[in-house]
Design brief:
The protein is of the alpha/beta class. It contains 15 helices and ten strands. It has helices at 2-32, 36-45, 85-96, 118-129, 142-151, 183-186, 192-204, 210-220, 224-233, 237-242, 245-250, 255-272, 289-293, 295-304, 317-325, and strands at residues 49-54, 58-64, 70-76, 107-112, 136-141, 156-161, 165-170, 175-177, 284-287, 309-313.
Length: 326
Amino acid sequence: KYQQIVSNKQIIFKKNVSKNIFLLKKLKNRIKNVTSSNIQNKIKMSKSILIADSGSTKTDWMFIDDKNKRQIFQTHGINPYIMEDDFISNIIENELIPQLKTTEIDSIFYYGCSCSTEVNCQKIERLIKKFLYQSTIVVEHDMLGAARAVCGHDAGIACILGTGSNTCVYDGKNIIDELTNLGFLAGDEGSGSYLGRLLLKSYCYRYLPEDLVQDFKNTFKLDPKQIVVKLYATKTPNSFVASFVPFISKHKEHPFMQKIIHESFTDFFEKNILYLKGAKQYDLYFVGSIAHHFQKELEQIAYKFNFNINNIIKKPIDNLVDYHLL
């Protein structure tokens, strides 16, 4: 009898275990029906997010509230390499904060030029934290932001052609190869500052064609000595030099302008693309105003070097929002 009682209890126990396992499997299957993407979207939609795409000339900001309403605005560009803390703090305090509907923001994703080093990333995070101290702040290089915006989840060579320039090989998730960018003083080939530099040299060294010289003087009211004073007095010399690009765009069909545009883009390909690992196996993806406004000339040089341009976007901010929300 004792053995029978024990046997009966074991049978009951096993039945209960089996029943519980069945219920657990049923619950697990129900959970699977709610996809991870839906869960992530619900989490993201319940939070407010601020996204920044910052170059040396301007910063595009996009604020998304907890109801998915979007607000876009601009401030002065931020470059931690050439700007002092007080200068950057002034931009945040007097340009960014007044435009925000609230300072209670859950997450901030900041993609900025010159944020390729830990020191500069920490500098930007610290200065934003002074005014938005409740937020979780993630600072990344603008090169990663450009890649995410223009390539999405596709592999390719992502390129920035704005005030400055940069390139990387992107595998659809991460940057897997990039060159050391020497910036405004020794690099930035193909960029607005590089084009502007070529124009100013031609004007100051007197080899700019006479018909362009007259229009240059009428447009800017600057002689060579005044240009030198402004160039070395400004806190943002790269932006100052790039400010002459609209003049190049205005006369871009002129043979001399075609020459310097082609020279600039040729230098960009030779210095910034050809020596990336496995460069020839990838398409090119461009972000920035220079790539946008000089698309025809850029495609001509790309063809010369046997590269295919897959996509060109002027501003990455909208695509970055989609990347973080979808």
